[in-house]
Amino acid sequence: MTIASFLILAASVNAPAPPEPVRKAVADLQGRWEATGIEENGERGTLDERLILTVKGNDMFFRRGTDDSVQFPFVVDPSKSPAHLDLTAEKGEKNTCRAIYRIDDKGELTICLGSNFSPCEPDRRPTEFATLTGDEKRPPKGRILFTFKRAK
Fold it and tell me: CB neighbours of 76 closer than 8 A, spacing ≥ 6?
């Protein structure tokens, strides 16, 4: 066994597994989702192009129309109410967009972002599934809200 192989093996053996609620929350998000609605700055928008969210492992891939997918590694905290979602943009510096999410009884995924996929401080995380124009009432409201259904 080479030293590199040993180090990789040792790191994977010693890496703590995420807690069960986190594993379940990540598992529930896996798969392809198709956007059914968008709200930005307090106004319902129209989806003029198909928006697909694909979740693989701890990565979210957003693809609009025929554009290339944009990848965001993510972390969830289902112990919070509403559940927290942090998306990391890895272009240049690592920057985190704070969000909340839920999957309702009908299987619809709702994500409310505190910014337009740009970095924001933890205190800018929305606490309500709604958006608002201007910054004076953010949070509790977010900047962009997406609804998705599972793609078939």
Answer: 22, 25, 26, 29, 83, 84, 85, 86, 101
Q: How many domains does the chain have?
A: 1
Note the pLDDT tens digit of each residue in 63-118. 998 888 999 999 999 999 999 999 987 664 568 889 999 999 999 999 999 887 77
Letter for the amino acid at 23?
A: R
Is residue 146 a part of any domain in this protein?
Answer: yes
Q: Which domain covers residue 122, as residue numbers?
A: 20-150
Q: Is residue 67 part of a domain?
A: yes
